[in-house]
Amino acid sequence: MINTEILPVTAGKTETEQLHLRRAADCIKTGGLVVFPTETVYGLGGNALDGEAAKKIYAAKGRPSDNPLIIHVSTPEEAEKYAYTGELYYKLAERFMPGPLTLVLTAKDTVPKNTRGGLDTVAVRCPENMIARELIRLAGVPIAAPSANLSGSPSPTTARHVLEDMSGRVDMIIDGGAADFGLESTILKIDGDVATLLRPGKITKADLEACIGIVEVSHAVTEALAPGERVLSPGMKYRHYAPDKPLTLVGGSDEARIAFFAERQKEGAVIICYDEQAAKLMPDSVITIGAGDDLEAQGHRLFAALRECNSLEGKCVYANLPSTDGFGLALYNRLIRAAAHTVVYPDEL
Ligand code: TXA
Ligand code: MG
Fold it and tell me: How does strand 121-125 pair with strand 143-144?
């Protein structure tokens, strides 16, 4: 067990906050682990150029070491040192960086194999959050960081979530308040002139296509994998975001869904639903994630809701099946994994 220190930093402007950030950067430089806020979710950071730090990250998360880490840089140009960039990279960087976009590129030898899970590619991201960027700048090295949750749990969007999972496992946690978006970055793989979406996020397929033309979508974004299937992104193989009770998604008409939720509630289920649906359900076992048409609010609250399920009594959890349009695809992708692809349509029952 490590003694985990919590360092509150909101704007990074005061002398105390600057001191906290310098200490955190020193900790990274000397091989330690620091959790830091980003605009998407909290990241569990270590020196991306130190293969031993990568091993410590995998151990702290309980993550299989074939599941590579994203390296975070403080400017888009810095990626040049670690990956083969090109025209597509710079088009995307100009439009979306800093921001919630991760690009998978062919790696240079400067990135240790441990950091990239043994692959020939490396994922690069330049976060928008000022605390994250300042930390990378002060550390003077890129920061390798997966989401700061235990492997399999929902990604943390507050420092309290981080503490639940990482207390005693990391040296420091920078508490920068709630994450802005609450879902992880969009991941796009670039291979010559082919771009493939590996994980949907705040930056949508349509946003990307408006910038670079056609974007393919890996079938693993929405579908379950065939047994033994090779995937473009190792993270797609693993179960994710799951609460401690089985989750089922509910599709179909609004009326049928509400009636179904109400019945299941009587049998002791927990319901994750939209604000307007809650009025028709018993309040004790309901968790709301925003209005049905407010996808941003839902993205913001989804992971907290999945965590909250664990503290409620109940045998199982039901939630609405999101649409796959626009930003909905990001919600769909997280929920379908959390539910291990279990969906029911009460209209058809
Ligand atoms: O918003 C985010 O991206 C957050 C914050 C902390 O930056 N990070 C994050 O990291 O979500 P992580 O490790 O939880 O998810 C990254 C995903 C994993 O599923 C991993 O398999 C995939 O990216 N990945 C990383 N490097 C890759 C590569 N070279 N090729 C394909 N997939 C890769
Ligand atoms: Mg993760």
Answer: unpaired
**SS3 call for 198:** strand
- The residue among 19, 148, 139 whose CA lies nearest residue 9 is 19
Residue 146 CB–ligand 1 contact under 6 Å: yes
Q: The whole model's pTM is what?
A: 0.97
Q: Is the CB of 257 under 6 A from ligand 1?
A: no
Q: Which residue's alpha carbon is nearest to atom 21 within ligand 1?
A: 235
Q: What is the pLDDT of residues 164-185, one digit of tens each?
A: 999 999 999 999 999 999 999 9
For residue 156, whether the previous peptide bond is cis, meaning omega lies within 30 degrees of 0, is no
115 Cβ below 6 A of ligand 1: no
Question: Which atom of ligand 1 is least distant from the CA of 122?
Answer: 29
For residue range 55-72, list pLDDT tens digits in order. 999 999 999 888 999 999
Give, using CA atoms, the residue closest to atom 12 of ligand 1.
146
Indicate left, alpha or beta for 290 from its phi (over 0: left) and psi (-120 to 50: alpha).
left
Amino acid at 64: P
The CB density around residue 102, as the number of other CB atoms within 10 Å, is 23
Q: Rounded to a whole number, what is the distance in angstroms from the first to the last CA of the chain?
A: 50
E strand residue ranges, the chain: 5-8, 34-36, 43-47, 70-72, 101-106, 121-125, 143-144, 172-175, 186-191, 194-199, 216-217, 247-250, 270-273, 286-288, 317-320, 343-344
Please report which confidence band the pLDDT of residue 240 belongs to, taking 50, 70 and 90 as the band edges.
confident
Chain centroid to CA 77: 24
Whether the predicted pLDDT of 346 surpasses 80? yes
